[in-house]
Design goal:
alpha+beta, Heat Shock Protein 90, 4 strands, flat
Length: about 90
Amino acid sequence: MDALLHGVPPGRFFAVHITADQEQVRIEVRDSGPGHPVVQTPHAGDEHGRGLLLVGELSDAWGSIDHAVGKTVWFTVKSTPVGGHENPADMG
Protein backbone atom coordinates (compact mmCIF):
# COMPACT_ATOMS: atom_id res chain seq x y z
CA MET A 1 0.00 0.00 0.00
CA ASP A 2 2.86 2.40 0.77
CA ALA A 3 4.11 2.05 -2.80
CA LEU A 4 0.75 3.36 -4.03
CA LEU A 5 0.42 6.12 -1.44
CA HIS A 6 3.98 7.42 -1.39
CA GLY A 7 6.05 5.88 -4.15
CA VAL A 8 4.08 6.28 -7.36
CA PRO A 9 3.82 9.77 -8.81
CA PRO A 10 0.88 10.22 -11.22
CA GLY A 11 1.55 8.50 -14.54
CA ARG A 12 4.22 6.20 -13.10
CA PHE A 13 4.21 2.49 -12.23
CA PHE A 14 4.69 -0.02 -9.45
CA ALA A 15 5.31 -3.76 -9.64
CA VAL A 16 5.17 -6.71 -7.26
CA HIS A 17 7.43 -9.74 -7.75
CA ILE A 18 7.09 -12.90 -5.65
CA THR A 19 9.52 -15.82 -5.68
CA ALA A 20 9.51 -18.94 -3.56
CA ASP A 21 11.58 -22.04 -3.07
CA GLN A 22 11.83 -24.66 -0.35
CA GLU A 23 13.81 -22.30 1.89
CA GLN A 24 12.04 -18.95 1.65
CA VAL A 25 9.49 -16.65 0.06
CA ARG A 26 10.76 -13.30 -1.24
CA ILE A 27 8.42 -10.45 -2.03
CA GLU A 28 9.62 -7.31 -3.83
CA VAL A 29 7.66 -4.12 -4.43
CA ARG A 30 9.17 -1.69 -6.91
CA ASP A 31 7.94 1.84 -7.34
CA SER A 32 9.11 4.77 -9.41
CA GLY A 33 8.93 7.47 -6.76
CA PRO A 34 11.78 9.27 -5.04
CA GLY A 35 12.84 8.75 -1.45
CA HIS A 36 14.02 5.90 0.69
CA PRO A 37 12.03 3.64 3.03
CA VAL A 38 12.20 4.71 6.67
CA VAL A 39 10.88 2.77 9.65
CA GLN A 40 8.50 5.07 11.51
CA THR A 41 7.65 5.23 15.20
CA PRO A 42 3.92 6.00 15.09
CA HIS A 43 1.84 7.11 18.06
CA ALA A 44 -1.11 4.94 19.13
CA GLY A 45 -3.66 7.17 17.36
CA ASP A 46 -1.73 7.52 14.07
CA GLU A 47 -3.46 6.01 11.04
CA HIS A 48 -0.24 5.46 9.08
CA GLY A 49 3.41 4.66 9.66
CA ARG A 50 3.38 0.98 10.58
CA GLY A 51 4.19 -0.68 7.24
CA LEU A 52 7.93 -1.18 7.57
CA LEU A 53 7.61 -1.70 11.31
CA LEU A 54 5.37 -4.70 10.60
CA VAL A 55 7.61 -5.91 7.76
CA GLY A 56 10.60 -5.79 10.10
CA GLU A 57 8.81 -7.71 12.84
CA LEU A 58 7.23 -10.38 10.64
CA SER A 59 9.99 -11.03 8.10
CA ASP A 60 13.31 -12.78 8.47
CA ALA A 61 15.10 -10.04 6.49
CA TRP A 62 14.23 -6.93 4.51
CA GLY A 63 15.94 -4.14 2.65
CA SER A 64 15.78 -1.83 -0.32
CA ILE A 65 17.56 -1.43 -3.62
CA ASP A 66 17.91 1.96 -5.32
CA HIS A 67 17.37 2.27 -9.07
CA ALA A 68 18.02 5.15 -11.47
CA VAL A 69 14.29 5.83 -11.11
CA GLY A 70 12.62 4.59 -7.93
CA LYS A 71 13.50 1.72 -5.61
CA THR A 72 12.61 -1.84 -4.70
CA VAL A 73 11.69 -2.75 -1.14
CA TRP A 74 11.99 -6.50 -0.49
CA PHE A 75 11.49 -8.92 2.37
CA THR A 76 11.96 -12.64 2.93
CA VAL A 77 10.15 -15.14 5.10
CA LYS A 78 11.56 -18.60 5.72
CA SER A 79 9.39 -21.41 4.40
CA THR A 80 7.84 -23.80 6.89
CA PRO A 81 7.23 -27.34 5.66
CA VAL A 82 3.56 -28.31 5.58
CA GLY A 83 2.68 -30.66 8.41
CA GLY A 84 6.12 -30.31 9.94
CA HIS A 85 7.81 -32.55 7.33
CA GLU A 86 11.31 -31.53 6.34
CA ASN A 87 11.04 -33.07 2.90
CA PRO A 88 7.83 -32.86 0.83
CA ALA A 89 8.66 -36.31 -0.59
CA ASP A 90 8.17 -37.72 2.94
CA MET A 91 4.51 -36.72 2.87
CA GLY A 92 2.49 -39.48 1.71
